[in-house]
Design a protein that fits this description.
This protein has 339 residues and is α/β, with parallel strands linked by helices. Helix content is 40%, strand content 18%.
Length: 339
């Protein structure tokens, strides 16, 4: 984001505005942390601010400061449409194409509000007046920190903002172990702790809240783990029947794909989750090194994301989707075995 953009945004925010902040569908820690972090910051400028999420999110994110102010589009559609249509500015965070917001796509694309994008995913759509897009950033939360800093308002970061931003950086870096975690990321984290983010408290609320049924589901997933050693690939399947057996709740499969990637010698890991309600197979892909699951997902599974972490979906059956996945792996043999 250049100086001219920053000057323009500072001028925009110099007077009270009606602002809506939107993350992607099925928001994760980075989406919730970045939207609420920005929400608390913008309130300090006396703006009218509302976070609207496309749908619900896991219970382990509902302790975050400001959670009780969030509106859910799928449950409060009419009031959310009014807020979006009346907004002066819409911030879109942690996504870069309107289709990533599900049922909100139409109202967002038709809105006359000025759009500001803050996002770290690849190949952004060209819908925003101001675009802060950087695929090298660890997380959108780290970008919000730098955004506030560029506006010369870092002194306004309080414990609420720090907590929200720490959350998203922690979750999107896999607790600081992914290669997107840089020395700058650690300096940002240090500053957030100094400003009131309680790292142990945040970690415990995200990672130490397992139910008995969630752990049983994890056991089922690991029992379904398959390995293709010659292609350095591991994959997991979960059927709707298995999800129902263990009383699946949103967020229960978060991070499960990483167990496959943790196996010695594995470069590519996938999880395929049947969702009868949406009529799709949800796919999460993870990789090591330079093997791009973003490219794989875009080419074969209607998705995308980052080089080492991407998502997708299939409209075929669970078995047919897995068969397709296995059938395309040989074409990636060289890339997988070069890692």
């Amino acid at each position: 984001m250049n100086k001219q953009d920053i000057t323009g945004i500072k001028q925009l925010l110099s007077t009270q505005k009606k602002i809506v902040i939107v993350p992607h569908k099925n928001p994760d820690g980075d989406a919730i942390g970045s939207t609420l972090g920005l929400y608390h910051y913008l309130l300090k400028g006396n703006h009218q601010v509302q976070v609207i999420v496309p749908n619900d999110y896991p219970s382990f994110l509902k302790w975050v400061p400001g959670n009780d102010t969030i509106l859910k589009y799928d449950l409060q559609t009419s009031s959310c449409d009014t807020l979006i249509n009346d907004a002066d500015i819409i911030f879109t965070l942690d996504f870069n194409a309107f289709h990533r917001t599900g049922n909100m796509e139409d109202v967002l694309s038709k809105s006359k509000a000025l759009k500001i994008m803050i996002d770290h995913h690849q190949t952004p759509d060209d819908y925003a007046t101001y675009m802060f897009s950087d695929v090298n950033m660890s997380s959108t939360c780290e970008m919000v920190y730098h955004f506030i800093d560029m506006l010369n308002d870092k002194s306004l970061i309080d414990s609420n903002i720090a907590t929200c931003l720490y959350l998203g950086i922690m979750t999107d870096t896999g607790s600081f172990r992914f290669r997107s975690t840089t020395s700058t990321t650690h300096r940002v984290i240090a500053d957030l702790i100094e400003k009131g983010a309680q790292n142990t408290y945040i970690h415990n609320h995200v990672y130490d809240t397992n139910s008995y049924e969630r752990l049983q589901l994890l056991g089922c997933a690991l029992n379904n783990l398959k390995v293709i050693p010659e292609l350095r690939t591991a994959y997991i399947t979960l059927s709707q029947k298995e999800l129902n057996t263990y009383n699946f709740k949103k967020g229960d499969t978060e991070g499960v794909v990483n167990y496959g990637l943790s196996l010695n010698g594995i470069v590519l890991a996938a999880i395929f989750i049947e969702d009868k309600q949406e009529g799709i197979i949800k796919i999460s892909l993870r990789s090591k090194g330079d093997f791009s699951v973003n490219e794989m997902s875009r080419a074969h599974f209607n998705g995308g994301g980052h080089t080492n972490a991407a998502g997708g979906k299939s409209y075929s059956s669970l078995n047919a989707t897995v068969e397709k996945f296995i059938s395309i792996l040989p074409s990636y043999n060289k890339a997988l075995n070069n890692e």
